[in-house]
Amino acid sequence: MALIAIFLLGIGNFAMHKAVLESHHPLLGRMPWFVHMLGGRVTLATEFLVLLAAMTLAANGLPWLVWVYLAYSALNAFAAWLILSRRI
């Protein structure tokens, strides 16, 4: 059950991340050069590594990691909302 929850949260994280990258927000222009490398694919790869680590740790006996990944996803959602609604 923990793996399914983390996987579904990961799908949401990828969707939010992609939406922020495609928003062309002026804040993205201030990011370091590696964020822009390959059109943002490096940051998507980092997002994948975070998801992979969370799923691996949950599969190896840390079911409470779902709550940690849920908090991470909530922070991502809040940041994406701020960026996409142009509040920052």
Q: How would you describe this structure to a colleague?
A:
The chain has 88 residues and is an all-alpha fold. It has one domain. Helices cover 73% and strands 0% of the residues. The chain has 4 helices and no strands. It has helices at residues 2-22, 33-36, 41-59, 65-84. Helix 1 packs antiparallel against helix 3 (41-59) and helix 1 packs parallel to helix 4 (65-84). It is elongated.
Task: Supply database-style keywords.
single chain, 88 residues, mainly alpha
Write a brief structural summary.
Helix content is 73%, strand content 0%. The chain has 88 residues and is an all-alpha fold. The chain is elongated.
- Rounded mean pLDDT is 88
Strand content: under 5%
Specify the biggest β-sheet.
Answer: none
- Classify the secondary structure makeup into a structural class: mainly alpha
Question: Spans with pLDDT under 50 lasting ≥5 residues?
Answer: none
Structure summary, number of beta strands:
0
**Helix count from the secondary structure assignment:** 4
